[in-house]
Amino acid sequence: MIPVLVVDDEPMVCAHLRTILGSAGDIEVVAQAGDGAEAVEAVVRHRPRVVLMDLRMPGVDGLTAIERIAALPDPPAVVALTTFDADTYVIRALRAGAAGFLVKSTPPEDLIGLVRVAADGHTVLSPSAARRLVALSSDGRERGDDARRRTSGLTERERDVLACLGEGLSNADIAGRLHLAEATVKSYVSRMLVKLDCTNRTQAGLLAHEAGLVAR
């Protein structure tokens, strides 16, 4: 079972998500929270693998909660919930440690599938969405310079793997493209996350876009 925490200040939204996710045989909503402070407490208490986090809430908002959860030992994958397709607030959430984002109008069958993807440690963010988010960044040139500096010490193979992360590819897909063993790709990814000071694959993928490693 995939334990999931749902966080939203609208009880009807939480009930809707519970109903959708409860229809899947391998997903269990173990708790819900109404703001960011409750969310952090629920993560510590229930140890979910995935957190669906509304960003705009009164009190402690979703962005602050994501930062606090990312700082916990062995944090879950946090997926930001938003009403908008892409905005600068989502960028801040991804840079804070979110594994991706979902629009609240996502069809039920897609929502279930994407929760499974997040639980497996993969990015819940399409390459096209990543490009739009980077384009929306108000400090794009500065971010690009910083990204190129941070990636300058990577080997050619590491840059290839990072570019694949920017395309949203899984370890298996990267292994197939680069003719590597999947275990080797996993090792590359783990080392790069540390070297680049990235919390997860999504942050690394955004960095690849900002550094210009992914074809537009």
UniProtKB/TrEMBL annotation:
Origin superkingdom: Bacteria
Task: Provide the Response regulatory domain boundaries.
Answer: 3-119
- Give the InterPro entries listed for this entry: CheY-like_superfamily, NreC/VraR/RcsB-like_REC, Sig_transdc_resp-reg_C-effctor, Sig_transdc_resp-reg_receiver, Tscrpt_reg_LuxR_C, WalR-like
**Residue numbers bearing the 4-aspartylphosphate modification:** D54
Ranges where the HTH luxR-type domain occurs: 147-212
- Record-linked PROSITE patterns: HTH_LUXR_1 (PS00622), HTH_LUXR_2 (PS50043), RESPONSE_REGULATORY (PS50110)
> Short name of one Pfam family for this protein?
GerE
Asked whether the UniProt record includes Nucleotide-binding among its keywords, one would answer no
Kindly state which keywords UniProt assigns to this record, in alphabetical order: DNA-binding, Phosphoprotein, Transcription, Transcription regulation
Report whether Hydrolase shows up as a keyword of the record.
no
Supply the PANTHER family for this chain. Answer: TRANSCRIPTIONAL REGULATORY PROTEIN NARL-RELATED, TWO-COMPONENT RESPONSE REGULATOR
What is the recorded name of this protein? Response regulator transcription factor
Q: What species was this sequence derived from?
A: Amycolatopsis heterodermiae
